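@channel sequence for tomorrow's demo:
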Amino acid sequence: MTTAAKGSGLDRLLRVFADVRPGEGLFAVLLALNVFLILTTYYILKPAREALILGQGSPELKTYLSVGQVALLALAVPYYGRLAARLDRRALLNTVTYFFVACLGAFYVLGRAGMPIGIAYFLWIGVFNLMIVAQFWSFANDLYSRDEGERLFPIVGFGASLGAVLGAVIAARRIRPFGVYELMLVGPVLLAAQLQVTNYIDRHSQGHAAPAPSIRTSEVTS
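structure tokens (generated this afternoon):
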């Protein structure tokens, strides 16, 4: 059997964990890195929600805001669909991600200026989590057929799990010495990094020229 038929060293290494065929290893690892960065970002940003909302209201306020998140998503998902219909896949991914980056910059500036951002941030973080993760999985589904997904998504899922664990650890250890607002500055850096990975995958994936990924309401509200 030729070396090409066996695949690269990375393909052979990953074959210990999943049914990776020649040429599939690199993109599986890049997708795992992509979602790793997304989940790390979310779990670093999440504790700020609790700190801000408890500083500006009662714990019962969280219950009412959760209802508000559902209403906000009901507005955001159709708008995302209209945006997806007008933009190609890469443009959509860049536009949505940079929108969230800009939001974090605005929260930092307003928070440092003494503005009460707790309620807005609570609503935003819920929308960010659901939409950015759903967008990633829609992107991954565009790249892979059903057979490829069944074989390779365990590798991608490992990246998601690792990102959630690492993000929570970083937040727990750094929120006190750094402060809530300083942790918000980590988010744009990680999101910009994951977007570079996304763009690389989109440019170099062959035979997967799919349209812009769509987010269905069922994906967001599940």
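heads up for whoever presents: Confidence is low (pLDDT under 50) at residues 207-211, 216-222.
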